[in-house]
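Reopening closed ticket. The problem is back. First fold of the pair:
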Amino acid sequence: MHPFIQQISQLFAAQGHHSYGEDITQTEHAVQCAELAILAQESDDLICAALLHDIGHLISTTDIAYGNYKHDSVGAIFLSKHFGPSVTEPIRLHAQAKRYLCSVEPGYLDSLSAASLDSFNHQGGLMNDIEKHQFINESYAKQSLKLRRWDDEGKIQELSQQSFDTYLPHLNASFIKAECDVL
């Protein structure tokens, strides 16, 4: 196992027991989102994005009850040294995907949890027409919308049956692809 993947595993082991205003831990949420991506028969890269989408909460903790409002970009930057854009871009865009869905889908805003609504308000709120157009034209907008849906659904205890390390093969597969892309 590459030392960076080991570092990620250790980070979840050390910090993953925290929550950020939801009724589940960071690790439970990560595992649930990854499991939803697997059930959707997605690629290793999107499974990794689902697993690691909130890593920014762990590497840049705050005293705010609902976590780090910039966790999307913090996590994407942290991971970009070893993972390609098919992992990092959906992570970077997943908060914007929430803003987009709140702006275009009736009832979506009302479905947000208290923690998600709080971060929505701190991350820019509803998008204007220009922002919606810019978002939907991003290269990984569709993947980030899938990730956002799993983010919403990944708060169900029954999906937390696996350990974080169960998903290491997906991380290894995506990591190796990123290394090959660099060469």
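Second fold of the pair, where the issue appears:
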Amino acid sequence: MFRIARQNPSASLLVRAQEDPRAYAAFYDAYSDRILAFLARRVFDPEVAVDLMSETFAKVLERRMQFRGESAAEEQGWLFAIARTELSHYWRSGRVERAALERFAVNVPELDGDEFERIEALAGLNSLDGPLLDAVAALPPDQRRAIELRIVEDLAYEEMAAVLAVSEQVARARVSRALRALARMLRDGVTAKDAAA
């Protein structure tokens, strides 16, 4: 009777992907939500977080043969180091580099309302407290109102657009701009008093 060998849970999925590129899908599935949440908590913008996550995984795919670890903990550390590097590049340049995405012909899908909500929930972007409330108070009125409707009142973008008497695209843009501004203020430690000065 044959026994099916079970995979060691501490074994690296990335090591398997070095020999079999199809195994990369299991690696992606294991870590994509965690990387997405990690990035969304730092940029406060679901679309930018998805772009950064896509670039991170494209870089990992491209560099998988350079990985020298053997355990899941080592692959996780390596993956998050690449994600932090991509985030650092984003903060310095203000945009997501798409070189690896283009080399692999990866298309980053447009996010729909449900996906925006899933990422916001995954990253815990739905709660406002402490320094974040001060940063919200420092936003321009149109962006502050958009954040209040989207996050505090938990309205869908379609409902927000109706309340604001603007298109859904404009409502999304206001939320996106506000989230980027909040991320900058929180990263730089700017208070409402500083922003008003």
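Update: turned out to be a display glitch only; the data is intact. Residues 1-9 have pLDDT under 50 and may be disordered. The first helix runs from residue 13 to 19. Please close again.
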